[in-house]
Specification:
The structure holds two protein chains of two kinds. Chain A is mainly α. Chain A is 79% helix and 0% strand. Classes of the chains: A mainly alpha, B alpha+beta.
Chain lengths: 426, 72
């Protein structure tokens, strides 16, 4: 918990470790947008198109994976009192491995080429392994809110299964592994990645962050204790059924999991509506949009809309939007937090530190949200009107660039404020 | 004279920011009286190192914290 004494200040990793993950992520969103501009409507024609698979992995590993790994290394000590062992090494190794791995994997999936595909998948797998082993160790020692602990553990299991399934699929593409049918394994990989890793991690973080950062009532105890393990069981049963061809069980189990996430999204929207303080804030706009996209994705899938529409809602609506909104909060908070730490350790109470709210210009954050919303609408439109595909890609690139600019701005403001400590006191 | 500061509705870390600002502006001899929704442990850590003393009364949801410079 953030509210436990000096624990948070003393055990947090150095600022540059999460920052390097956060600053890399938007560049992958830029690449995904550029790929769409380059390929045009064909990218959205089917989820099996090579550029669509490549764009999916640019977003899932390059953007989402980076943000989530960076955030977890930072937040585990603060949220559940469990610092990640050797966090400097983990950061220094996992970051380049995931960056190069995602680039190689996406290139291999897009243009073919067994060497680059195999290398990209192996390096990505290695990057996640370097991240997962110490994080698993930390999670075995976790304390605090049981709901968060459980959801984070479930998310870690889901990431491991996603990576293993991804490696099996790559092995099959390269002819090393023989699968009776390819499609069910892809569906299982996607279910573990999107519902398991992304969904459960968002759940675990939200249970803690929403009441704390937005001053709302807590999530109901039943949801905190049971939703994550129930969803994990649903995803396990559902993916097993998919692979074995038990169609009815698969539909029921995955459908029930999706309904669980809808319940969570509705609850989150309800809690945000109960805030004491009614201030518009770009992070909230992102939370609202992401929760609506989560509900929309389930509806789209239930109503048998084109699968690319469901994919767009999950990957762009939830996957690109929510991390951006969280970064608007997390990065200024970390910058402020490390400045505060420096003030305490140096005893320089003569210095006035910048307020967290001044580290990120709100007008630009709103503009970023506006561009993100426009990109999302254009992307959804492009499923039905192909001419919208390239404009959608362009707006996606713009929104990612503004995000990158905002994050860099926070780092620069942090550096400026940190320089004041070098000037001796009067 | 006491200065009263209600931070119970603010999102973190604004309560801490406002309290530190108010302490920096505190006139010698004055005390700062803060209304907070939870026990601000990180603040105590800072107050101790800044050479302030404090007293907290209240219950979950509404705490009253009185802060004054050591030696006064």
């Amino acid at each position: 918990m953030i509210s436990t004494g000096g624990l948070a200040l003393d055990q947090a990793p150095p600022f540059h470790i999460p920052a390097r993950f956060f600053l890399t992520a938007p560049l992958f969103a830029v690449l995904a947008g550029l790929l769409l501009v380059w390929e045009g409507p064909s990218l959205l024609a089917s989820r099996w198109m090579p550029p669509a698979v490549a764009a999916t992995h640019l977003i899932a590993i390059g953007y989402l994976g980076q943000v989530m790994c960076g955030a977890l290394l930072q937040m585990l000590p603060v949220m559940v009192g469990a610092p990640v062992p050797a966090v400097r090494w983990v950061g220094a190794l996992a970051h380049p491995l995931l960056t190069l791995g995602a680039l190689g994997l996406a290139w291999g999936l897009w243009r073919g080429g067994s060497v680059i595909l195999g290398l990209g998948a192996s390096v990505t797998g290695l990057g996640f392994l370097v991240f997962l082993i110490p994080v698993t160790l930390a999670l075995t020692r976790a304390r605090g809110e049981p709901g968060t602990r459980m959801a984070l553990r479930a998310a870690a299991v889901a990431l491991l299964v996603t990576v293993v399934l991804g490696l099996v699929l790559t092995g099959s593409l390269l002819g090393w592994v023989r699968l009776a049918e390819f499609t069910p394994w892809v569906d299982a990989h996607a279910a573990w990645g999107l519902l398991g890793w992304v969904g459960l991690l968002i759940l675990g973080v939200a249970v803690q962050v929403i009441p704390l950062f937005y001053v709302t009532p807590p999530y109901p105890l039943l949801v905190r204790s049971w939703l994550a393990p129930t969803l994990l069981a649903g995803i396990f049963l559902g993916s097993l059924a998919v692979i074995h061809g038990w169609h009815l069980t698969a539909r029921l189990a995955l459908g029930a999991s999706a309904v669980g996430f809808v319940l969570f999204a509705v609850l989150t929207l309800g809690l945000l509506a109960k805030r004491d303080r009614r201030r518009q804030d770009p992070t909230l706009l992102h939370w609202w949009t992401a929760m609506i996209a989560m509900i929309g994705a389930t509806l789209s899938s239930a109503l048998a809309a084109p699968p690319t529409l469901t994919g767009i809602l999950l990957l762009a609506g939830l996957g690109l939007g929510l991390p951006a909104g969280m970064l608007f909060k997390i990065l200024p908070f970390l910058a402020w937090f490390h400045l505060q730490h420096r003030q305490i350790t140096t005893g320089r109470f003569d210095l006035r530190l910048p307020h967290m709210g001044t580290l990120l210009p709100l007008a630009w954050a709103r503009a970023q949200f506006g561009l993100h919303g426009l990109a999302l609408l254009l992307l959804m439109g492009a499923v039905f009107i192909p001419a919208l595909a390239r404009p959608a890609g362009l707006v996606l690139v713009l929104s990612a660039l503004v995000l990158q600019g905002l994050l860099l701005g926070v780092i620069l403001a942090y550096r400026r404020a940190a320089l004041a400590f070098l000037v001796p006191a009067d | 004279m006491d200065r009263l500061l209600d931070v119970s509705q603010l999102e973190p870390p604004e309560p801490l920011e406002r309290i530190l600002d108010a302490l920096a502006d505190l006139v010698p001899g004055d005390q700062l009286s803060v209304i907070h929704r939870r026990v601000p442990f990180p603040l105590y850590d800072m107050l101790r190192r800044m050479g302030h003393r404090w007293e907290t009364v209240g219950e979950e949801g509404r705490y009253h914290i009185l802060i004054w410079p050591e030696g006064e």
